Amino acid sequence: MSDLTLFLDLLSQPCRSVYIFAKANNIPFNYYEVLLFKGGQMSDDFGKVNPLRKVPALKDGDFTMGESTAMLQYLAQKYKTPDHWYPADLQKRARVDEYLAWQHTNTRPHAARVFWIKGMTPYLLGHEATPEKLNPALCEFNATMTTLQDTFLQNKQFLAGEEISIADLVAIVEIMQPSAVGVDVFEDKPKLSAWKERVVEAIGADLFNEAHATILKVKEMQNQPVPPELKERLKARLELFTR
Q1: Which reaction equations make up its catalytic activity (predicted)?
Q2: What is the pLDDT of residue 50?
Q3: Binning pLDDT at 50, 70 and 90, where does residue 1 land?
Q4: 235: which residues sit within 8 A by CB, 6+ positions away?
């Protein structure tokens, strides 16, 4: 049995990036499912692994950590994955790190905001999001996608060069979040659309689809009951995105 355990919920975009990376690189790990919508992150056992109570989390023997991008870097270096994922060359690695630093305040929050407003408003409040709430989020997200295409991708095959890296993996899982609630992410962005196809091909379509199967069925999941206490916490989070 592997000493490595990954604590994941594949509804979470950072969890998907870690899951895909480990599976694509044949890294042996134990899969511990933490169901966020059932409050699994609040258990005492999980709190011992990640006191911040966020997924993904990693336990490697006695070593524990959170934060998906740091986790990807750790796995790449420990398991000596192919160099293109996290290059040894200083400048190539810097390009990967550049995107990873940028996405924290751009791709990630802007994609998440669209997902929550468009996808979670009906689930939690019982009605569709109003244009006054949704349109600013969509404009912000579309501007981010334009920057992703024109500034980071440009005419390259992938975000940081001519081969896939963890930058592409981190980007695609975030972009799939608004896509799952019906947003045409790639409309009028042919370079970005072609990039997505290359990413899927590099990862493998079966693995990509496996990792995204749950999030792509998120509307079906909304028919399931949610504990009242958790629903109130989710409403509070939704309120943050609609301010």
Answers
A1: RX + glutathione = an S-substituted glutathione + a halide anion + H(+)
A2: 86
A3: low
A4: 124, 125
